[in-house]
Amino acid sequence: MSLRTLFFDAAGTLIQPAEPVGQTYSQHALHYGIVAEPEAIMQAFRMAWKETAPPLHPEGQSAEDDDRGWWRALVGDVFGRVQGRPLAESVLDGLFDKLYLHYAQPQAWSVFADVVPALEDLARDHRLLVLSNFDRRLHSILAGHGLLRFFAQVIISSEVGAAKPNARMFQAALRAAGCPPQEALHIGDDLKCDLGGAQNCGIQAFHVKRPDQGLDVLMQKVRSGAYSGLH
Known about the structure:
The chain is α/β, with parallel strands linked by helices.
């Protein structure tokens, strides 16, 4: 079978925060009288992210709040770790609202340099979809960077009701693309969510690991036929 469809992860694959997360959190926290070093916040964020289960809703149900509550709990956990005590609810409400709005803005994100050339080339003869553990903010972010034009559809976890590596995400993408697993390739930077999740569903996967393995390498591999005729 030939390769017809490419699924792209978003954060870490197509886009990344324009400035370090710890720096952004630290700057916003100052407005609420919270002094925290960016590196301490970054360490707390990594730990909270690792230890917090991804959103999961009953099958067939999307997140009523677009997973906003999940993000609020994560931000609260981060600052609780840094401060050694929970933030007051009123402070957390205000700080979270500011951070949530910040990351809804296209300018809060930057596009990796290898993305547009690769998408322009691959979109010529492949169907491209985004498959991301994100919420509805992703649509305006991608639109703001002129990336939506490349994709037939954007599949996000808050609408599916499950997050990668859950098979429901990949099944939703296959249904949207109208293709069998053997004709798809998933591209992402996370070994568990992207590679493991895809391969468990019978979908080939490409591991984005810049600078050695970016989308320029993906393009070369696709053009060489590396992902065709393997099934």
